[in-house]
Model the fold of this input.
Amino acid sequence: MSAEATNPEAHPEARPELRRRGRSRIDLRRLGRAALLGPTSRDRLPDAIGHVAEAHRAHHPDADMSILRRAYLLAESSHRGQMRKSGEPYITHPLAVTLILAELGAETTTLTASLLHDTVEDTDVTLDQVRAEFGDEVCFIVDGVTKVEKIDYGAAAEPETFRKMLVATGNDVRVMSIKLADRLHNMRTLGVMRPDKQARIAKVTRDVLIPLAERLGVQALKTELEDLVFAILHPEEYEGTRALIAAHAGERDPLPAIADSVRTVLREAGISAEVQVRPRHFVSVHRIARSRGELRGSDFGRILVLVGENADCYGVLGELHTCFTPVVSEFKDFIATPKFNLYQSLHTAVATPEGYVAEVIVRTWQMHRVAEAGVVALGNPYATATPDPAADPDEERVDPTRPGWLSRLLDWQQSAPDPDTFWTVLRAELAQDREITVFRADGGTLGLPAGASCIDAAYAQHGEAAHGCIGARVNGRLASLSSPLSDGDTVQLLLAQDASSGPAAEWLDHARTPAARIAISSWLETHPDRAMATTSAARAPLSVVGARGGGANAVADLPDATVRLAGCCTPVPPDDVAGFLVRGGAVTVHRVHCAAVAQMRAVGRTSVAVHWRATADCRVTLLAESFGRPHLLADLTEAIAHEGVEVVSATVEPPVEGRVRHTYTLQLPDAAGLPALMRAMRDVPGVYDVSRA
Done:
């Protein structure tokens, strides 16, 4: 494995078996013709899987090896006579894949399935035989990693194989663990293939399998896959990076001396820790070189500090920041806030008196195991589950380790029957490298990719019912559906009561998740007329003028004066009002608390006493603010008419970020009905506020 992905020394408490037996680490790349060793007696493991057994016992000293022996014998006999393109017996491939997983600490069921992972695909062994011999779990995993028949799917075989594998991974994450180890060994031996085929396989590895390894937290596999892909797809940059590392190897490396200083500091502080220098892998060095330019000696690796307890991590951090100069911008706490792939560590950087800056990672031994092996370190997710005798054996199994991103992927893939769409969207989904968590109004949570909007949250929570979403409240405040969400936000989604409501085409500009984009696109394709009408209606300003009613029912104590109700505050009975004489001899009537009243008095306008007539009718201007949706104007007009109110005029402004403002001038038969009218308008789906102008 790469220098970044391997642990050169085993901790005496974490892996006592290695210390006791003094076992040296195995170079996985050298596993070749182990299957050609001589015959073995029936009472012991075949010599060909001796390395596998030794690595497995290091993590699971009490494991039953008899099942591995039976799995190897079936795999070896079924693959006998088959050769790899490299000229080696085919059995060396499942052996190498199994050894990779054994080194990561996989449990016996995973290793058994790994030995058999190609038997159903490439030999006469059937799934029924595997089930009869090794049980349902091994059979399920083997079936999950078995490719679909190309003769049945043609060019769609590869995307459909990945779809099948991901669905199986949703039920058992061990399926993808085997696939990742399988691809790693294939990438190691890719040199025997044509350059064009190497490039094709490397691109799929880069776009799909490396992101999956990252999400499942299997850094030990991810980093080596990155280096192998880098060498194939970018040979010139790879050679340049290799030359940089080779030149550094001949220079004085400051990291061992810094590591010694860290050991001394922690020893004097009474903190028990192991301090290691971790060389960066090729891709990591390449990224650092591109971001920093000329590299210094301390840039070629990092210092790893391993401790026993979580509290010790923060103790180490305190000592480092006390005894060295911390680089504050480099500090990250992934213990308090773990990454979505289970990763936990403290990251910091310190400057030494000599001017070197060293990056330091602090974690416990358990965190280290999970950081290296990810879901492989979780073992059998069903080991502690109590079987339900009443459960349907054909029902989908729920993996307690299934991460949120995988659940989202499994949801949207059901809506993407087209293999090309699935393949394109899968790559785009996996390109999202960060995840946020938002809280629902009912107390639940939603896991979304970084940059997701309220639209994405709507489809994540409500599925196709989100077609009728008309707005949202984010952290208690009204927000448009296009509003991006941040980690920790609380979102309340507002749905229309009208079942015929549908999304606008503009929603696609703000949807980030495949589930939302696929659902919106499908609706627009099946409602082309509605989609066009929604778009055009949302952009066109609308003004409606009705027949004007009677004059204002305010009376001024000034003979023959024309009385006007001020448009700024639209007073109605029984408001307290004040009148002012304006140009042309007219009297303008304002509510006494209107801001214009103070301005009138300040400029010396003549005050005129006004009062209301005995008649109860009045004219008022109301502002209705709403989220845009089809038929909203018609629904509001119907609600107004139902209250027996006459519409004098109505204006609808163009939408801004999905929100629309309606201005209505209304003639009420009785001013006392104004509160009920405003309530009726607020009850119209999509309307979130009604106020007097």
